[in-house]
DNA sequence: TTTTAAAATAGGATTTTCCCTGTTTATTGA
DNA sequence: TCAATAAACAGGGAAAATCCTATTTTAAAA
């Protein structure tokens, strides 16, 4: 048995209190780890890191949070507390999300459907090796190197994006022009340009394109 | 201290192993409850209920699951094991979901962001009173009785629906008319009728309406 | 300071959309 | 069979959208 002072410290950031609470119980049941506290989101974490005297070795970070989500929080942590190792926790195995987090410098990425035993393993590895990569993450990394679908890189300029989003409303182009402080003829140009580049025939096509590429949400 | 045989029994159904596992730890730490086992989804639960000799008193059921989700599972349970009390667990406080579950007969509805202490309370109440209703659920029930937005009942006729769906393509109304074997003027009528009824200004409005009402999917 | 490229703007023609007020053609119930 | 009603269809005009081909303005680079 280890006494608390020998144990590695963990802080949990998750807006789901029930999950955070249970997770704490689970982690505290691991002989080598103990949870210092948990935070509801990135902002809450910032405050608590200031007020608490002890900094954790590991941060278990949920990426789906309101207010200040996992990405922002990870970035802030890397900048302000680079020594704290971040283990990202996520519901979905979204490839883009995984890559984004890895790029900001998290030490591991866990899916919430992993076996509790794997969490223990991940925590141990992060302490010992400095990182933990599950199979899924490794696979994603490979996929990203060898992209199956080149995914039409949409180079939308700021104005084009704005126009596209406004085109999904019931406004006329003239009204859109007014809002954007541009001549209707300029809007005319934006539209035609998009039609050509995206192989689109009319405004409905624009709307569908925006939808498919999540440029707007219903 | 209670010995196991005196404790109330719980089974967890959740596809997120980590959550299920931690939750088990948490519940087992409650003096009056113990977890018998957990299942990944409804199907898994069916199998396990058959093979295990002991039936639980309470079923903690996640509603967001692949394979056989919370709704189906709840229905099956009510039909096949009506004596087992169901506590639904959900990430989102989706009003429709709450109502749907309550109607199928679950004894309570918990959000995953509740405080662990509330879970203990909910379990106790379900055993003692037979149900547990959090504030949110009570509020939702009130809302459902007094609907703020009457939700335009959309009485779309077959042809109108078809037109609406085709209007979400890049076809002109003339082309749509051809496909539907109708005069362009008839299509004109359909459109105008929908504009008036749905308070829509132009074709983009039609597309957004179809999207919002899931008449088409992206 | 030129040169250059991109962004913004125009003119003008054609098509499509939108809107209003009708008429004709089924369909159905008395 | 005869209204009554709904569905389909039309004419015609105004507004908006689409599609060309330029020109002007702006910003960046040389």
Tell me what the structure shows:
The structure is a homodimer of 218-residue chains. With 218 residues, chain A is an alpha/beta fold. Chain A is built from 10 helices and 5 strands; from the N terminus they run βαβαβαβαβαααααα. Chain A has a 5-stranded parallel beta sheet, with helices on both faces. In chain A, α8 (173-180) crosses α9. The interface between A and B is large, with 38 and 38 residues. Chain A binds a DNA duplex (30 and 30 nucleotides) through residues 157, 159, 172-174, 182-186, 188-189, 191-192, 195, 201-203.
Notable traits:
homodimer, 5-stranded parallel sheet, 10 helices, 51% helix
- Helix/strand/pairing class of chain A, anyone? alpha/beta
Catalogue the unreliable spans of chain A.
Answer: 145-152
- The chain-level mean pLDDT of chain A equals 83
Query: Roughly what percent helix of chain A?
Result: 40-55%
Most extensive protein-chain contact, per-chain counts: A-B, 38 and 38 residues
Q: Which strand order does the major sheet of chain A show?
A: 2-1-3-4-5
How far is it from the N-terminal to the C-terminal residue of chain A, by CA?
54 Å
Measured on Cα atoms, how large is the radius of gyration of chain A? 23 Å
Number of helices of chain A: 10
The oligomerization state is homodimer
Strand content of chain A: 5-15%
Run of helices and strands of chain A: EHEHEHEHEHHHHHH
- Biggest sheet record of chain A: 5 strands, parallel
Shape of chain A: elongated
How many strands in all of chain A? 5
